[in-house]
Write a structure and sequence with these properties.
261 residues, alpha+beta, 5-stranded antiparallel beta barrel, 5-stranded mixed sheet, 6 helices, 11 strands, 32% strand, elongated
Length: 261
């Protein structure tokens, strides 16, 4: 049996010191804030740790696998005729051209120029560059001017956390009788932000037990998940997930496995 509890951890602005949040941050730090729990997310996180050992072709396959795990169709182009585009992703109904650069140092202007031109050649509406090592100041400025979106290792880690949450949600038993509560209701009309680099998106989570509970929905940025010692009440461990809300307050999801009697 799985028991899931959602807790309002802090009902104050970020500047307010909340003792419970500090204690939890220490616990999360012991597991480097957000180790994935599902098999797919774990595998992607392990690949990211050794990303510098990948060839260019292997990194392109890794990127495509990452997008597929998030639920998007991704095609690796490869070859000399790719026109500066390594992967094409169908993201939220849009065709996106992606160039993958697995360099050991910050990426400069050239990939931005290439993917910008290549996106038009392939009929894409957006152009992205993925480079775990990051980008030079000049590359960031050029990308901003021409509308190319840049993603580094931190963005990839964020996507892996989202994949982990998605897989965990898919693994939860379905219950058609569960009531759904939108926690954003009455919050002043918060607008859902689904952009990949903002972190704020709509989360839908089943709380309670497998038999008794409800489904809640809210807009937040998932900061990470960690397994901590649950003591006698949760001898198999306790999974804690922290969410930051748009108003800079926090919610905590506590989940444990309970053996059947």
């Amino acid at each position: 049996m799985t028991i899931v509890v959602l807790i309002a951890l802090a009902a104050a602005p970020r500047a307010t010191v909340v003792l419970g949040l500090i204690v939890l941050a220490v616990l999360l730090a012991r597991r480097l804030l957000g180790g994935p729990r599902t098999l797919k997310a774990k595998a992607l996180a392990q690949h990211l740790e050794v990303v510098r050992a990948m060839t260019g072709a292997q990194f392109e396959i890794f990127v495509a696998d990452l997008f597929r795990a998030m639920g998007y169709n991704a095609t690796v182009l490869g070859g000399s005729g790719d026109q500066g585009v390594d992967v094409i992703v169908n993201y939220q109904g849009e065709r996106v051209a992606v160039q993958c650069k697995n360099y050991g140092k910050a990426v400069g202007n050239k990939p931005i120029q290439e993917v910008y031109a290549g996106s038009r050649f392939h009929g894409c509406s957006d152009a992205w560059v993925l480079a775990p090592a990051g980008f030079t100041k000049g590359a960031v400025e050029l990308a901003r001017r021409v509308g190319v979106t840049l993603y580094d290792a931190n963005a990839i880690r964020t996507w892996i956390r989202r994949i982990d949450e998605k897989k965990r949600r898919e693994n939860q038993p379905s219950n058609k009788e569960r009531r759904t509560v939108d926690l954003d209701a009455g919050s002043g009309g918060l607008k859902e932000d689904t952009t990949m680099d903002s972190g704020m998106e709509k989360h839908t989570i089943s709380v309670g037990t497998d038999r008794y509970g409800e489904t809640v929905a809210f807009t937040a940025n998932m900061l990470g998940t960690a397994e901590v010692n649950g003591g006698q009440e949760a001898p198999d461990g306790l999974d804690l997930t922290i969410y930051r809300l748009p108003d800079n307050t926090y919610r905590m999801l506590a989940e444990k496995e309970k053996s059947a009697c």
